[in-house]
Specification:
Helix 1 links the parallel strand 1 and strand 2. This protein is 34% helix and 22% strand. The termini are far apart. Helix 5 runs antiparallel to helix 12. The chain has twelve helices and 15 strands. It is an alpha/beta fold and 396 residues long. Strands 14-13-12-11-7-10-9-8-15 form a nine-stranded mixed β-sheet. A six-stranded parallel β-sheet has the order 3-2-1-4-5-6, with helices on both faces. The longest helix is centred in the last third of the chain and has 21 residues.
Length: 396
C-alpha cells in the first residue's frame, strides 16, 4: 500500500492539515542555530529529528548526538556518509536542515539532493554565485523541495502585511525602507567567540559578514512583503567597532522594479537594538510598518486618519491565510521560535505534497525557495561590487 501523508480531498484554502505521520528530519551542523531549528521543527508537530552530521570529528559527533536525542548509529561524522546511508534506509530521513557555516552549504546541499532527499538550507544559500546557480539547476532536475531559512518572512504579521499590500489597499508603493540593527558585537572581544569568528573570516563567510548574515534577511523581507524585486543598489561597507577583516555595518540606497526607491541599513553596533529588524512601506494612499521587536503588531497609517494596529492572535480580524500561522489568542505572545516552527510547517507540507504527487497551487505556501536563496547571493555580490567601486549603482 502506498503511503499517503496528506488527507484525501483537503482544501488548499483552509487551515493547514495534519499529516498521517511526522516526517523524519536530519540535522547537518551542530551549532546553536541547529539546536534552535530542531526545537522549532518539533514545535511544528510535523517533524521528528532522527539523524545528524553534527561534527566532522566522530567523537564530537557522538557526544553532540545525545543533545538531539539521536540513536548512536545515526550520528554521522560526514554529511556525505549521512546522505548515502539515510537514502538507503527504509526509515531514512525525509529531509535535512543544513546549518553549517556558509562555505559548506553547497557541498552539503548537493550531497542530499543527489541522494534524492529534500533540503532546507540556512542563508546565505552559498558564497559563490556559480554554486547558487548550480543548486537551482540541481533542484529543478531532481524535483526535490529546497527551502531557504528566511525565517523573518514567517511571522504571522509579516504574512498579513504581504496580503494587505498585494490587495492594493495602500495604493501604489512609492518607497521601501528596511533596517536590521543589532548591538551584540559592541564589546571589544565579541568577535573572538567561536560562533562569531567564522562570520568574520572571508574563507568561511565569503566576501561579506554583516551584509550576508543580516542584510540578506532585510533584503528578502522587503521584497517578500512588497511583492517587488530589488533591481539595483549602491552600498557602503564600514567597520565601526574593533578592527575586523569584514564589515560590521552596511548602508545602502536601493531601487525596486518600477523605479521604486528605498534604503537598507544593517549593523551589529547599535546600542539598545537586539532584534531591530524594521520594515516601512509607503504607498500613495497609506503606509505600513512592522518591527520584529514588537512582532505581534502591524501598524497601518492612512493619511489624515487615526493609525490602525492589527495584532496577532485568534479573533482579531486577521485573514484566514494568516490564521493558519496563529497558535494562541491575543495576549499570549508568540515569537521567533514560533516563526521558525511556521517555516518548518510549510516545509513539511511542501515535502508531503511532493511525496504524495500533488500539484499544490502556487500561492498555497510562502516557503522561501532555492530561487530566493540565489537572489540573496546576487544581492550580496552586487553590494560587494558597489562598495569596491566606491558606492557605484550596481544591477542585481
Amino acid at each position: 500500500m502506498t503511503e499517503t501523508l496528506l488527507p484525501a480531498g483537503f482544501d488548499f484554502e483552509g487551515p493547514f492539515p495534519r499529516l498521517s505521520r511526522r516526517l523524519r528530519l536530519g540535522v547537518v551542523g551542530g551549532g546553536r542555530i541547529a539546536a534552535t531549528q530542531a526545537m522549532a521543527a518539533r514545535l511544528s508537530d510535523r517533524w521528528d529529528v532522527v539523524a545528524g552530521a553534527l561534527s566532522s570529528d566522530p567523537e564530537k559527533a557522538r557526544a553532540k548526538s545525545a543533545a538531539f536525542y539521536l540513536a548512536p548509529e545515526r550520528a554521522y561524522a560526514s554529511f556525505f556518509e549521512m546522505a548515502e546511508t539515510e537514502a538507503a534506509r527504509a526509515d531514512g530521513v525525509d529531509a535535512v536542515m543544513i546549518t553549517t557555516p556558509n562555505h559548506l552549504h553547497h557541498s552539503a546541499a548537493q550531497a542530499f539532493l543527489d541522494a534524492g532527499i529534500d533540503v532546507l538550507c540556512d542563508k546565505p544559500l552559498t558564497n559563490e554565485m556559480e554554486e547558487a546557480e548550480d543548486l537551482v539547476r540541481r533542484t529543478a532536475q531532481s524535483g526535490r523541495i529546497f527551502g531557504v531559512s528566511y525565517v523573518m518572512s514567517c511571522f504571522p504579521m509579516v504574512r498579513q502585511a504581504r496580503e494587505i499590500l498585494a490587495s492594493g489597499a495602500r495604493g501604489r508603493i512609492n518607497q521601501i525602507h528596511v533596517e536590521f540593527m543589532q548591538d551584540w558585537m559592541i564589546p571589544e572581544g565579541a568577535h573572538d567567540a567561536p560562533h562569531v569568528k567564522w562570520r568574520l573570516d572571508p574563507r568561511i563567510s565569503g566576501p561579506t559578514s554583516c551584509t550576508s548574515d543580516i542584510g540578506t534577511h532585510a533584503a528578502h523581507l522587503a521584497g517578500f512583503v512588497s511583492g517587488l524585486r530589488m533591481s539595483d543598489l549602491r552600498a557602503d561597507f564600514y567597520v565601526c567597532g574593533a578592527p575586523k577583516e569584514l564589515e560590521d555595518t552596511v548602508f545602502m540606497s536601493t531601487r525596486y522594479e518600477g523605479e521604486v526607491p528605498g534604503t537598507l541599513m544593517a549593523t551589529r553596533l547599535a546600542p539598545g537594538n537586539r532584534g531591530g529588524l524594521r520594515l516601512r512601506v509607503f504607498g500613495s494612499e497609506a503606509g505600513l510598518e512592522w518591527d520584529m521587536e514588537n512582532a505581534e503588531r502591524l501598524k497601518l497609517n492612512r493619511f489624515g486618519e487615526p493609525d490602525q494596529i492589527i495584532s496577532r492572535g485568534h479573533g482579531h480580524g486577521v485573514s484566514p491565510r494568516t490564521e493558519r500561522f496563529v497558535r494562541t489568542g491575543r495576549g499570549f505572545p508568540e515569537g521567533l521560535i514560533e516563526a521558525w516552527a511556521n517555516l518548518y510547517t510549510e516545509f513539511a507540507l511542501a515535502v508531503a505534497a511532493r511525496k504524495d504527487g500533488l500539484k499544490a497551487p502556487a500561492d498555497w505556501l510562502g516557503l522561501p525557495g532555492v530561487e530566493d536563496g540565489a537572489e540573496g547571493v546576487r544581492f550580496i555580490h552586487a553590494a560587494v561590487r558597489s562598495h569596491r567601486a566606491g558606492g557605484r549603482w550596481e544591477s542585481i
